[in-house]
Amino acid sequence: MYARYFKLDPTEKEIAMNWSKWLRQFHRWLSVIFTATVIANFVALAQTGGAMPSPWITYSPLLPLALLALTGLYMFVLPYATKWRSGRRIAVMQ
Ligand code: HEM
């Protein structure tokens, strides 16, 4: 009875939507972190006069970029996966 007022029983679709919303926000913040690490590389290069700075700075964009690629590819296939899943559900109902 109270479930109508307090969302105690989220549907499968709501859980999936919350998850993709969270991933999109994660991707957005990762892009900010990634951009900061790229800028840090240019700053470090200017300070060393072009010589290679600490490998920690040089390779720091790689982790956020890898996570961006994973979350981005997930977001890319999401509409196709949703279509495929809803198609499969109709096929099961027939
Ligand atoms: C590395 C591989 C990457 C892939 C495969 C990827 C893929 C995607 C996809 C599919 C979307 C959703 C587009 C839509 O609305 O339908 C997206 C959104 C976005 N991407 Fe990426 N991306 C990648 C890297 C990056 C990088 C390097 C940046 C910036 C530094 C970036 C910044 C963003 C931003 C700001 C959004 C909008 C997020 C929002 O809706 O708030 N992405 N990306």
What is the strand and helix layout of this fold?
Blueprint (H helix, E strand, L loop, with lengths): L11 H36 L7 H4 L3 H32 L1
Helix pairs in contact: 1-3
Bound molecules: protoporphyrin IX containing FE.
List keywords for this structure.
single chain, 94 residues, mainly alpha, 3 helices, elongated, binds protoporphyrin IX containing FE
Structure description:
This protein has 94 residues and is mostly helical. The protein has one domain (11-93). Helices cover 77% and strands 0% of the residues. The chain has 3 helices and no strands. It is elongated and about 60 Å long. The model has no long low-confidence stretch (mean pLDDT 88).
* Protein structure class: mainly alpha
CA gyration radius, whole angstroms? 21 Å
Give the CA-based shape.
elongated
Show unreliable segments: none
Give the number of DSSP strands: 0
- Amount of helix: over 70%
Counting H and I runs of at least 4 residues, what is the number of helices?
A: 3
- Describe the largest sheet: none
SSE order? HHH
**Mean pLDDT across all residues, rounded?**
88
Percent of residues in beta strands: under 5%
Number of structurally distinct domains? 1
Bound molecules: protoporphyrin IX containing FE
